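ingest -> validate -> predict -> emit
validate: passed (alphabet ok, no gaps, 150 aa)
predict: started
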Amino acid sequence: MKRIGIDMDEVMGDTLAHQLNWLASHRQVALRADALEPGQKPHDRVEAADMAALEEAMHGGDWFRDIPVRPDSQQVVARLCKAYDVYIVTAALDYPRSCQAKLDWLAQHFDCVSLRKVVLCGDKRSFAGDYLIDDSPHHFEHFGGHALLY
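emit:
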């Protein structure tokens, strides 16, 4: 069975929407996703103090529990689990305290994937598989399988 790795943030979960909602509710920053150019991130358009506050919240860890699930992602992942050996591959160590929250989020929303098949890493080179679905092209630089940009 072929092995497939799936990124969490911006593939399974709508992290951008969660960031924008947090900025609106905690910092009164009104920025909509459709106002961002392709590839642009909130830090490109938001004041440094507001981004620092968001980063502090994200580094707290629990912020990751409330990320909205992307539409249809649960059904797609469940179908992939029937045809592939599915692993969830997330650069959780960018926010080390996020690990437990990410595991809890996966258990709540994606119970079709065993938590034994979750790769919490800082560098996705540690994942060896046939396919990797990710929203960040830099994760494909050293990946030996098929890269699928989401």
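The two ends are 22 Å apart (CA to CA).
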